[in-house]
């Protein structure tokens, strides 16, 4: 893939995104800790089940009424773009592989969008979406997009209204949109630390930050499949994470199992693997902080057989 020219967002972008997002989405709950437990920011309660809808709303609002948008995703980002397009009255095309999950395709068909199925891999679907973008539509990346990053940063502004005093925010780290956005918000505060968490099977961002640029890595199997991929070459999130995220951590599959069982057993909550990596790091004792710690539970869209297997297992 050729390196795209993507503008790097700033804190003013996050403020503008906030005006859009809070006009559409109610604040998601912040569950205060029981004895000794971490506070949880429940992005699982978003209408699409994931924080991704924040960035989609901001990006589509930024595109304006007349410019169509296009993206490639059969997951949380695609659902976010579909929701945002329907809510804001924008024209949107979501491109997915021909063999995409029937359940996800059915969910996307529930929105007022154009759904295109082409190719047999995500890369082929993305290539088609980029081609459509070259014809005049705005291509909305799941993370390498200024509007998307700014929209994810509204989670920080929301936390600022729900908390007081020093704060450590722990969040999932895949392409870096969420961590970058929260980091931009934290840059306006002197009492906020941001920690990003990857799966040990796919530490793409840690490798990129260490090298100063995208580094292809081998991605292993993981429950956190939503954040397990190589980064887009030249992604602006690499520099943003390096500058604004205080610490990068990884979690193992065993630690992910523990986090998913904790959410279900202690709070009666469902999360996908990628949505629980922040909590997994906290429960494993990897987050050192004398401050208030908030773990972002970022998404709930998990296949039920996968969740059932995790809850029934004694993974170690």
UniProtKB/TrEMBL annotation:
<dbReference type="GO" id="GO:0009097">
    <property type="term" value="P:isoleucine biosynthetic process"/>
</dbReference>
<dbReference type="GO" id="GO:0006567">
    <property type="term" value="P:L-threonine catabolic process"/>
</dbReference>
<dbReference type="InterPro" id="IPR036052">
    <property type="entry name" value="TrpB-like_PALP_sf"/>
</dbReference>
<dbReference type="Pfam" id="PF00291">
    <property type="entry name" value="PALP"/>
</dbReference>
<dbReference type="GO" id="GO:0004794">
    <property type="term" value="F:threonine deaminase activity"/>
</dbReference>
<protein>
    <submittedName>
        <fullName>Pyridoxal-phosphate dependent enzyme</fullName>
    </submittedName>
</protein>
<dbReference type="GO" id="GO:0006565">
    <property type="term" value="P:L-serine catabolic process"/>
</dbReference>
<keyword id="KW-0456">Lyase</keyword>
<dbReference type="InterPro" id="IPR050147">
    <property type="entry name" value="Ser/Thr_Dehydratase"/>
</dbReference>
<dbReference type="InterPro" id="IPR001926">
    <property type="entry name" value="TrpB-like_PALP"/>
</dbReference>
<feature type="domain" description="Tryptophan synthase beta chain-like PALP">
    <location>
        <begin position="39"/>
        <end position="299"/>
    </location>
</feature>
<keyword id="KW-0663">Pyridoxal phosphate</keyword>
<dbReference type="GO" id="GO:0003941">
    <property type="term" value="F:L-serine ammonia-lyase activity"/>
</dbReference>
